[in-house]
Amino acid sequence: MITFSSTVLGDLWDRPEDQDGLVDFGPVTNTAIDLLLLASLVPFVLIAVGWIGRRPAGTASSVTGGLRWRWLGVCVLVALPVLALSCAAVLLLPGQDVAPSGWAPWEVFLPALAMLVVLVPLQSAAEEYLFRGWLLQSVGAFFRSPWCAVAPQAVLFAAAHGWGTLWGFAELVVFGMLAGWLTVRTGGLEATIGLHAVNNLLAFGLSAAVVDGLSSDETAADAALPTVMLDLAGVALYTAAVLWFARRRPPLRTAPAPEALPAPPSFECSASPAYAPAGHTAWPRPPAAAPHAAPTHAPAPYAAPGSRESAGRPSAHEPHQEHFEHPGHP
């Protein structure tokens, strides 16, 4: 739907095509379309979880059946200083030319940054829902060890970013492994969404600050070894910090029990005058019937009429008649 809409608008506005045959709206708009395409994966993942996985779609977010927003906020606050420090260290590498084409003017950078702040978290969350929310959980349901599910999704996650340098691909595999381990240990996607969103926002924001930086086709898979080492140091430090917070103040891991429904009111009929309608006199309660006297003889066992056992006994369907002897009768 997004691609079709962009194609129609490109034809209406007579926009040129890029090398891939897609409409070229410019670096900022093209980046926004790409981010929206990735963000649109979320509803499809949730449908797959509910339809194919036969479980509530919210369980893809966490063990509580939904995102734990407070825990997500804690993870974002942890990721911001740690990854910002790692990003600054990368920029200070010797021979690193941050802005080879110059810095973008404010009137170009600020709208691009506003777009990134809105769409990058959605794109990052979509990737987490796909790899750590659906793939990891679906595979992990068949194995006792979580690593049997953590390892395959990490390799697929790296492959989805393209084949660049060997070190760049290895960095993405390690990133996927740590993200999968965080998902297992914290019981949800909040820690990995915070890590992924802040990491991508810093990377995209730095690209937006450079003239035509968003038009570059390079990804994390194309990183060199020094950049990879500093990036992984930041990710490892973030992982250790989140696990420390999770031990000190464990995130919510159970869903709240549903509230018990109040007992329905009981209505009892009473003959007391206090419950009688206005203008009416309540009838007195009838006296209790006297208990029946117990029989003085044990009842005869049941026997079919005409049988030997029923001979000489009154029928169960006939009234019992007493026999009196007349005086003088022998």
Give an account of the 3D structure.
52% of the residues lie in helices and 0% in strands. With 330 residues, it is an all-alpha fold. Helix 5 packs antiparallel against helix 6, helix 5 packs antiparallel against helix 8 and helix 7 runs parallel beside helix 9. It is globular and about 50 Å long. The N and C termini lie far apart (116 Å).
Shape: globular
Number of helices: 9
Radius of gyration: 39 Å
Order of helices and strands: HHHHHHHHH
- Report, as a whole number of angstroms, the end-to-end distance: 116 Å
* Structural class by sheet pairing and helices: mainly alpha
Estimate percent helicity.
40-55%
> Which spans have pLDDT < 50 for at least 5 consecutive residues?
269-283, 297-330
* Mean pLDDT reading: 79
% residues in beta strands: under 5%
Main pleated-sheet profile: none
Number of strands: 0
Task: Name the descriptors.
330 residues, mainly alpha, 9 helices, 52% helix, 0% strand, globular, disordered C terminus
Write a concise synopsis of the structure shown:
The protein is mostly helical and 330 residues long. The protein has nine helices and no strands.
Question: How are the elements arranged and paired?
Answer:
Elements: H1 2-12, H2 27-39, H3 41-51, H4 69-91, H5 106-140, H6 147-160, H7 166-186, H8 190-208, H9 225-248
Helix pairs in contact: 2-5, 3-5, 4-8, 4-9, 5-6, 5-8, 6-7, 7-8, 7-9
